[in-house]
Design brief:
Layout lengths: L3 H7 L10 H9 L7 E2 L2 E2 L7 E5 L6 E6 L3 H18 L4 H17 L1 H12 L3 H29 L3 E3 L2 E5 L5 H14 L3 E5 L6 H12 L7 E3 L4 H9 L5 E5 L2 H10 L6 E5 L4 E5 L5 H12 L10 E7 L3 H13 L19 H16 L3 E3 L16 E4 L6 H4 L6 E7 L2 H9 L6 E5 L3 H10 L4 E4 L18 E2 L4 H5 L3 E3 L33 E2 L1 E3 L2 E3 L6 E5 L5 E6 L3 H13 L2 H4 L2 H16 L2 H12 L3 H21 L6 E3 L5 E9 L2 E5 L7 H12 L3 E5 L6 H11 L8 E3 L4 H10 L5 E4 L6 H7 L7 E3 L13 H6 L1 E9 L3
Parallel strand pairs: 6-7, 6-9, 7-8, 9-10, 11-12, 11-16, 12-15, 14-15, 16-17, 17-32, 20-24, 27-28, 27-30, 28-29, 30-31
Antiparallel strand pairs: 1-2, 3-4, 5-19, 10-18, 13-14, 21-22, 23-24, 25-26, 26-32
Bound molecules: 1,4-dihydronicotinamide adenine dinucleotide and magnesium ion (MG).
Length: 795
Amino acid sequence: MVHVKDVLKSMEYGPAPEGNEHVLAWLEAHKGGFGHFIDGRFTDPSASKSFKVANPADGKPLAQVAHGTAQDIDKAVAAAGRAFKGWSKLPGHERAKYLYAIARNIQKRDRFLAVLETMDNGKPIRETRDIDMPLVARHFYHHAGWAELLESEFPGYRPVGVCGQIIPWNFPLLMLAWKIAPALAAGNTVVLKPAEQTPLTALAFAEICREVGLPAGVVNIVTGEGDTGAALVAHEGVQKIAFTGSTDVGRVIRTATAGSGKKLSLELGGKSPFIVFDDADLDSAVEGLVDAIWFNQGEVCCAGSRLLVQEGIAEKLYAKVRARMETLRVGSPLDKSTDIGAVVSTEQLERITALVAKGKEEGAEVFQPSSIQVPGTGTFFAPTLMTGVEPASTVAVVEIFGPVLVAMTFRTPDEAVALANNTRFGLAASIWSENINRSLDVAARLKAGVIWINATNLFDAAAGFGGYRESGFGREGGREGLYEYLADDGAKAKGKEAAKVALTAAPSPTAQIAAVDAVDRTAKLYIGGKQARPDSGYSYAVLNPSGKQVGLAGLGNRKDVRNAVEAAAKAEGWGAATAHNRAQILYYIAENLSARVDEFEARLRAMTGVSKRDAAEEVSLAVRRTFFYAGFADKHDGAVHSTKSRHVTLAMNEPFGIMGLLCPEEAPLLGFVSLVMPAIAAGNRVVAVPSARHPLAATDFYQIIDTSDVPAGVLSIVTGNPGELAKTIADHDEIAALWNFNGSVDAALVDKASAGNLKPVWNGGARNWRSTDAQGREFLRRATQVKNIWVPYGE
Ligand code: NAI
Ligand code: MG
């Protein structure tokens, strides 16, 4: 007797191609080529240099697309600048209506867009139809809501201006939606450059903008290659750059925008861990892996590309994975039963092939399913599992961006965390365990911006997405994502103290500490909970406004900063302490400071020559500010996002770790306190460089720290030349974020040096430190990064 089960096993899938006549007709109608979309119109395609776009599944040409020049970018930015005046002034409700109309229109055309995307990119129609397009529409709907609510939900914020947006080829229309929807909702206008491999859905989107009557110039699309993107990044009329792509180009952009004051968000590469504990539901984990690494041919920035599995179940899991891989279907992306389509380009295929060969060379065992025959034409790559991979081997470290999974084992949860965090990236992670305590404990310890528990690759417009470390900074989606397209008014407020300090105010090693000096009045550095002599052995004279020496301060150098970072690294417990504990310590600091008001007042007067009244006010405000952040320490809450799927999506505000603070020259005590307190209240450890001209109020502060139970290493104070120290701090790989409020420090230098580990830099600009503009949520927000943890709920 024939069993149904056996019949099912031997049955072949019939072809199930999705029709593409409508797309072919559209391409035929544009056979003369595509121009740019600038100021509400398409430019004449015959007027530009152009390049060919092909279907990766068969290599056949699809269209001829204009290659944008610096002049094209210039026109587009000018159009966006003109449109900004009207668009930013529109009531949020009016902008909401446009975004809503775009969302509706996308839904109306979703089949067309899905097919076009599949032909342009090579990804399976099942994914463009069921994942990309619904998320694109969802993003515009969600942000139509933010446009409506902007005024009431973001008081004190305004749109940034013209946004330059550069996107990659892996999710072309989805990345466009992630960029354009929040930008427009917040009142900005945009110039977007799609990837050269996949510009077609962006051009179809331009047609939608026309159809819904979006005002001319609000959205501009300039197609082109890397040089087109570079021209956009460099343009002076652009106030913000948003980039998704490779970490290498992210660094180039960080460097190119250095000192320009342009707001920047970077969403870069990843090598995200997929951690399977021995108590996991292994069959679910296997399905999870399919979605983690074989979704979108593995060309996903947050792909679960590093499988970390607990030793005892490793062979069992590998066997299940191999068996499941045998059932994956590689083939025509337009076929509805295809799981894995074509890789985007020959270049990408070569890269993947070379990396797999390298893995083999380095000793990995490579498995590809015997059942899979990749098509003879087109850029296809079979799903691949590499086992026996060493944590330091190339394939375990480098982003492959293809359907290639590398696997390693661990013994204990601690080891899993260490392995998971053993990467320069920090985009995402996936944790598989039936034990909720273990899952959440591990989630808290992973350094990644997005964490999925018993799930993977979940996205939603309501949840922020973005990385830690070299995966970039800034978030897309959710409330946290909107800040990337807003400027806070506080930054505009110029106080009477806002004047810049000339670099000549920087100290020089004039006064050497004289060993014979009976009273050593030299203020030392404060590192790891102890006073420390500067490594240089030098100090500099601190002068009052009439040029009289009022003391000596240590001339800190590179070595002192390194020591401070080392001490900070040992104080890791501070971030894990409860916010209540941190609040208690801040209150204690405030209390101890208020007990020494007279002393600090006298110091300020002697050092800066201010009146008694002014000095008294500064000290009393420093006490209040410390109270303010003590009060806020346990109120900088995260959120539970209302994502579309049944999850408790926790948006946790996590400290960066170690922060570098370049304090303002003016308001030597209050400026110092205004930066240090929010940073440590949020759970960071801090290396602070106080005012160089007036460092003594900050150096006196160590006595307060000493008597307030602040753990050693949480706050180190390094005096010296702010410019030199800034460079060292910006360069330092273990310093995760940097605030520069010192007007004498060259912002360009700091930005450039920060490109190494891609730390976010806040060049805060001048503030009136006595005003309440110089305190508040913005400081806490800048002292934290949002980690979104998706916890299954209800099903
Ligand atoms: P890429 O970073 O060069 O390209 C991304 C976008 O940046 C494209 O629109 C490109 O035209 C533009 N671009 C290139 N150079 C630029 C410059 N100097 N200034 C401004 N814009 C510039 O990425 P590519 O070469 O396509 O892929 C290389 C590798 O990058 C991949 O193998 C993958 O590992 C990674 N990647 C990561 C992505 C992510 O989502 N995080 C997306 C695409 C690639
Ligand atoms: Mg490139």
